[in-house]
Amino acid sequence: MRRIRGAIVSYAEGSARALVEWWDAFWFTPADPTLLGVLRILTGLMLLYTHAVWGLVLPEFFGRGSWLSERLVRTLQEGGYAYSFWWLVPDDWIWPVYGLSMSVLALFTIGLWTRFTSVLALFVTISYAYRAQEATFGLDQINAMLTLYLAIGPSGQALSIDRWLAVRRGLATPEGPMTSAGANLALRLINVHMCVIYLFAGVSKLMGEAWWNGEAMWLAFANYEYQSLDMTWLAWHPWLVNLMTHITVIWELSFCALIWRPRLRPLVLAGAVVLHVGIGACLGMWTFGLIMLVGCASFLPAEGVRRLVDSIRRPRRRPRPASSPLPRPNAPIAYSSPRLDVLEPVLTCVVEEG
Asked: pTM of the full predicted structure?
C-alpha cells in the first residue's frame, strides 16, 4: 500500500513540476522583440487611420451637441466603469485635444518614448471608444486589445526611434535587440486573446440556424449594404455557399487547437488570410480584416521575422570580381606552364583509350 501511495505522490509531484515548467516556458521564455515592433507599427498605422476618420466628423461625435448625447451614452454605460477624457473637453478645445491625440498615436507608431506613449495611446483609444460607444465596431475593440498588450510588452525595443537613439548613445548593441521575457509575454497574450476571439466567434455562429443549414455566407453576400463585390452568382451554386459556410465555422472552432501545432500553423494562418481578405474584398470591411491579420501575425516565428527584417534592412551585396591589371605595353607576357598533376588523370584516360 505504501508503494502504491508513494508512486501516486511521485507521479503527482512530477506532473505538477512539469506543468509549472511548461507554464513558465510558455509565458516567460525570452523572445526576440522584432515581431513586437512590427505589430506596433502596423497597429499604430491602423490607429492613425481610424482616428483620422473620426476627425472628419469630430464635433458631431465628440462635441457637446453630439449625435450621441451625454445622457444617452451615460445611460448605456450605467452600472459599469467606462471613462473618457472627452467628458472634460469643452467645445473650444476639441480640435487641440484631437491634434494632441493624433500626435500621441504618431509617436507610438514610430516608437519614440514608447513606454510612455504606448500607455497614452491606449488611453486615447479607450477614451474615443467609450465616448462614441454606439459608433464603434469590432475594429475598435481589436485596436484597443492590441494596444493594451503592446503597452505591456517592450514594443519599442525594435524598429523604433527609441532603439536608434539607444544605439547612438551606446546603450544598445547595433547587432540587434536583446531577447526578453516581456516580449514573449506580450506576444503570448495576443496569441491567447486571438484564440479566445475565434473560439467564441465559432461558438456564437452555432447559435444561428443559417450557419447550420449553410445559408449564412449567402445572406452576407446578398446584403447590398455591405456588398462591395458582386457575389450573387453564387445563387446558382448553393453547394459552394454551403461549403464556404461550414468551412468557416470549422476553421474558427479549430483555430485555438490547431494554431499551436507547428506543422499546421502555416495552413491555419493561410486560412486566416483567405477569410479576412475575403471579408475585405466581398463585404468592404478592409480595416477589420487587416487588423485581424495583424493579430494573427503574432503567431509568426519571432526569429524568422528578425531574419526577414535584417535582410530587408541590410540586403546582401554580391562581391565584385577582382579586376586583373592590364599588361603594360611592350611588356613580355608570362605564360604559366600547365600543372601536370591536374592534367594527369585526363592524359591517363587518353593513353588508355589509345
From this structure: 0.83
Instruction: Say which range, 101-115, 163-177, 258-272, 336-350, has the weakest mean pLDDT.
Output: 336-350
Residue at 336 is within a domain: no
Structure-block grid coordinates of residue 6: 508513494
CA 201-205-206 angle, to 5 degrees, is 125
If one counts every other C-beta atom within 10 angstroms of the C-beta of residue 34, the result is 25
Cβ(84)–Cβ(133) below 8 Å: no
**In the chain, what is the straight-line distance between the N-terminal and C-terminal CA atoms, in Å?**
89
327, part of any domain? no
Q: Where are the alpha helices (DSSP H) in the chain?
A: 2-28, 34-54, 58-62, 70-76, 94-110, 114-131, 138-152, 161-168, 181-205, 209-213, 216-221, 238-258, 265-283, 286-296, 302-313, 340-353
Q: Is residue 215 part of a domain?
A: yes
Count of beta carbons in the 10 Å neighbourhood of residue 202: 19
When divided into structural domains, the chain yields a total of 1
Given a contact cutoff of 8 angstroms between Cβ atoms, the answer to whether 30 and 24 are in contact is: no
C-alpha cell of residue 304:
524568422
The residue segments making up the domain with residue 202 are: 25-310
Give the integer Cα–Cα distance in Å for 155 and 161.
11
